[in-house]
Design a protein that fits this description.
The protein is of the alpha/beta class. It has two domains: 25-67 and 225-306; 86-218 and 308-342, 3-Layer(aba) Sandwich (Rossmann fold), CATH 3.40.50. The protein contains twelve helices and 13 strands. It has helices at 2-20, 30-43, 58-68, 74-85, 87-95, 114-123, 137-150, 163-173, 192-205, 222-229, 235-251, 310-318; strands at 48-49, 101-106, 128-134, 159-160, 177-182, 211-217, 260-267, 272-279, 283-287, 290-294, 299-306, 322-329, 335-342. The chain has a seven-stranded mixed sheet, with helices on both faces. A four-stranded mixed sheet has the order 1-11-8-7.
């Protein structure tokens, strides 16, 4: 009992000390201010929510790379199958106009999949500039170093920041036609209404004739999908919980991570695969002057991984200003890279 009381006393001291040391916005970078505001805004919602784009700090990058290597996480293997074994078909769809272009990849990560396409096009002496965009500066450094070693002739311009801000910058760097890659089923990390908004905004930034290649994870056996996001090793749980650790570190919050548990769900009718963090006890979390009260079993909504059927893809493209040129599926027909043209 004495040890527990002492631990509690030290925790209060640590909490107070962290709050004292929380920098004011005048001392913070724009990126840090946005992170703080998004976290506080999300936790004030009902239900509480955190933005999944903030999963990707240095530890989050490592955890996600480990997730992509899991046998249960089929998405990586499916799209890798397309980029390794149908590379020429992809390249033909991109370079059909036979004019120089900028290849802009949104959420490039470590470019492990797109590297196959980049290498093929570099060897074929296709005239293009690769512009990877990612919110994680750490992973872009890894990407840049790796690609310079593997493809020395590659013309690369790394862009660190949010998708649309960096896309605006990329659009202004040259007047070449644009080919945009949005891979990995990343569009599935949006609610369906948000996906329509995203594609509409993307179309507004592109010129007629520009190309978008985006990956869609298709509906399949529900157990296959659920296992990919609820692995026995707990890597996905650690990935989600790491965001709380990041908030503690960067915003001087006092989340007790042991008091939260990862929970995954999948609805085979809607195709919505959603992850949550569940508060195991009634508790209060401080972030600076802000206090957030959690009921026992209250959920924080973390991320959606939407699964599509073909009719969904057709409708999404036609209603947001694109036409489908072609689609390339993996060997299992579990995943498709859909090639759209701005009309």
């Amino acid at each position: 009992m004495i040890k527990m009381q002492l631990a509690g006393y030290l925790f209060v001291i640590l909490k107070n000390d962290m709050n004292k040391n929380l920098p004011n916005e005048a001392e913070m970078s724009e990126e840090h201010i946005t992170f703080k505001r998004d976290v506080i805004s999300g936790l004030k919602r009902d239900p509480k929510q955190l933005d999944s784009k903030y999963f990707y700090d240095e530890k989050g990058d490592r955890l996600f790379q480990s997730i992509m290597e899991m046998p249960e996480y089929y998405l990586t293997d499916c799209e890798m199958d397309i980029f390794k074994n149908k590379t020429e078909q992809l390249a033909e769809s991109i370079s059909a106009a036979n004019t120089p272009f900028d290849l802009i990849e949104l959420g490039a990560g470590d470019a492990s999949k797109s590297a196959h396409l980049l290498k093929f096009m570099a060897e074929e002496k296709i005239d293009f500039t690769y512009m990877p965009i990612d919110i994680s500066g750490n992973i872009l450094t890894v990407l840049n170093n790796n690609l310079k070693q593997k493809i020395p002739s590659l013309n690369i311009k790394v862009l660190h920041g949010d998708y649309f801000k960096m896309l605006d910058k990329a659009m202004n760097l040259s007047d070449k036609r644009k080919v945009v890659l949005f891979l990995g089923g990343n569009i599935g990390n949006m609610e369906m209404d948000d996906a329509y908004t995203f594609c509409t905004l993307l179309r507004q930034k592109l010129n007629k004739g520009d190309i978008l290649i985006t990956g869609f994870d298709l509906k399949k056996n529900p157990h296959t999908i659920l296992n990919a996001y609820n692995d026995a090793r707990g890597l996905t749980a650690s990935f989600n919980l790491n965001l709380l650790a990041r908030i503690n570190r960067e915003l001087k919050a006092d989340f007790n991570i042991a008091n939260f548990q990862h929970y995954q769900s999948y609805d085979p009718l809607s195709g919505a695969c959603k992850s949550y963090l569940i508060s195991l006890i009634k508790q209060t979390v401080d972030i600076g002057e802000e206090k957030f009260h959690f009921k026992q079993n209250e959920a924080i909504y973390m991320e959606i991984s939407q699964k599509y059927k073909q009719e969904d893809i057709d409708k999404l493209s036609s209603q947001t200003g694109f036409s489908i040129l072609s689609q390339i599926a993996d060997a299992n027909n579990w995943f498709v890279d859909s090639i759209w043209q701005a009309v």
